[in-house]
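#onboarding

Welcome to the new folks! Below is a worked example of what a typical request in this channel looks like: someone posts a single protein sequence, and someone else replies with the predicted structure as tokens. Don't worry about understanding the tokens yet, we'll cover that in week two.

Example request:
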Amino acid sequence: MTTSNFSRHPRGVPAGGRFAVPTFTEAKLFLDTPDTRLVNTTLRYSDEIKDLADAGLKGRVLDYQGDDVDVPDDAVIYESEDSHQLVLSGIGTEEFTVHYLAEGDDAAFRITHNEAVTAPEAVDSIEAAMWQVDIRGAFSKVFDGDEYEIRNTDLRRGGGGNTGASLILSDSENNWISLDHDYATGETSATPEGGPLEDPLDDRALDKVIKDLVGREGQAAAAEAFGKALAEASVYTGAGRYLGVHR
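Example response:
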């Protein structure tokens, strides 16, 4: 994956039109390799989708019938084996984009590229998008603030083997804050990413953020909440790749 851009939508601004899964006839193209099975029910991207199948992508490809103005006409729906739905456009070109659409929901995002990607790189982007959807769901079960809104999430094992999590938050004063947790040390910190705030949050300000999100203040409360989110995420398909957890 060459470049990943997650769009940030202001609260209350619809992120795009809902897409419907179409009906289709029994005429299906099954693409099989020893390790994968991908079903293409569309008439688009036959060669490119076969390359994705050969690169290990599983699930099925459907016609896109939505009306999102940000989605090109050549888009298709990818549905994974565990029922994730993403919209793919520009497959096989430098405009390849993975869209996650959520009407009226700030969780919508897209992953774009500035050059043509190989089929394995495209599969990497698709898997990264599915992981992003999963961990957003895991964190939303634990973190729920009134003053601070979660705009983006990240959870993965780093190169040194340590696992870390980040929540990108925004508030009514247009501050963007990165709330970061180190699972090895159990420490949580908060750093401004944009807006009026410039310096890292002191303990008092950090406690305010933590209490808004989890109902209690302090490092112990934050560690407990991040631990619950990690446990939630550990059951998802991407946990093996991103966390080193194998089911």
